[in-house]
Amino acid sequence: MPEVKASIITYTGINQQVEHHDLDASLLECSIMNQIPHIHECGGNGLCTTCRIRVMDGHSNLNPRTLKEQEVARVRKWDPSIRLACQCYTKGNVSIQRLVWTNSEVNRLQLETIPEGVAEERPIAILFCDIRGFTKLASENSSFDVAHILNRFYTVLGDPILINNGVIYQYVGDEIIGLFGVSGGLKSKNCKDAIRAALGMQYAIERLNHIELVDFNVNLKLGIGINFGRAYIGHLGHPKHKQFAVVGDPVNTASRIQSFNKQAQTSILISDSVFKSVSPNTLDIGRSFSNQMAGHDHDTVIHELFGFKEMDVQLELQQSLDHLLRNEDAFASKFYDKVFTKAPDAKALFKNNMASQGRLLTHMLGGIVYSMSRPEHLTLGLKLLGESHSRYGVQEGHYPVVLECLMETIEETLGSMSNPQLLKAWKQALETVTSEMKRFAKET
Ligand code: HEM
Ligand code: FES
Fold first, then answer.
1. What are the chain's domains?
2. ipTM of the complex in this document
3. pLDDT (tens digit, 9 = 90+) per residue, 72-123?
4. 361 lines ligand 1 (CB under 6 A)
5. Closest ligand by atom to 71 CA
6. Ligand 1 neighbourhood includes 349 CB (under 6 angstroms)
7. Measured from the CB, is residue 283 less than 6 Å from ligand 1?
8. From edge to edge, which strands make up the β-sheet containing 7-11?
9. What are the pLDDT digits (tens) for 421-442?
């Protein structure tokens, strides 16, 4: 039989070339096989668009767009050079550039489905967060320091929005606005995501005060207001300068709820509609207020929010992720040392570079925490992972060992931050991940 010539796949962003022998493997699978990080949240099912690539050269060697791809491209008005790597098969050389690099970029992709030039009414949760104590900080520090702190502030407070499937809508001075449910979803989920983001923000500002701002002699506090309602969303403005905008009474009300924190001396206030959207007895609530907001002829009921009554696994994971993966290589090498000590037979299954493998594992752990707020994608992602592990020769008995080693590595890396609740949350999440992987591996 004539030998099939390998195609050369060039990854332009990282200037790397790999040989691709398997005509039945997609370009996404080519990345995975060659340990090239390539986000693929829906596990190669043509749904999430995170595996998107720009084809720089060799376009004619690829299959035509699949039906799923055609739909995705039509909605987003993609030019023909943008493809989904999970839907692309090549019979010759191609040069590609991956277009989504980090988990936090994934959320902004929701905005691509927002109409141009018109505003569409969509039910969303709106979160306004205002920083207190900033005027003092700005008056006592150089503009350079203030800009640096503002940047840190936007980063640490933006992360909880992004990790909870929210979109950062705007920064206005020392205020940050997040939207949840821009591309749909259940009201209960969108409100819960916004609540979790608010609690994550509060945790993040405490850490910022105690660690990074400790020399600035300030104690920044937050005022957060969350509302839910039907707002108008679109890309609006001058024909030559349109920008994403969200307008309507629910937005103004969210802003006013936020402002009411000062008067009520509270940190987080949620509207009654947010409160009622989550299952009864879920939230730890303080005082309730009935207040007539400016521009309204009726009272709005709002509640002070302290937290969740029961442990929220996602919130626990989110708050520790940054710390755990600060030194990804150290985390991975500690973990694999443990695995190979407890299950020496597993070592032979790893054929590729262990440093790159370690990074793929830690990226995947981060990706799992991010995509927990998009559970439909998470399940599909775990399906692909379970199937690939079955091909690597991973046996069912390896999973408990890996789980144990991951938990030990997590506990050791958390150090003084570790506590029983946090460990319980990680255990619960990883048990779900491994049991899903095993389930899908069996079906392979
Ligand atoms: C929490 C569970 C696990 C996660 C999140 C995970 C994650 C990953 C990821 C992201 C990769 C890169 C390739 C791909 O995406 O398919 C990978 C490869 C691999 N994993 Fe896992 N894994 C898990 C459990 C296990 C277990 C139980 C074993 C058994 C020892 C194992 C052995 C391997 C092997 C052999 C490879 C391929 C390495 C190579 O190509 O050299 N993994 N894993
Ligand atoms: S669309 Fe390709 S991985 Fe989701």
1. 7-101 (3.10.20.30), 105-310 (3.30.70.1230), 315-443 (1.10.490.10)
2. 0.97
3. 999 898 999 999 999 999 999 999 999 999 887 887 888 887 777 777 899 9
4. yes
5. 2
6. yes
7. no
8. 16-20, 7-11, 94-98, 52-57, 82-84
9. 999 999 999 999 999 999 988 8
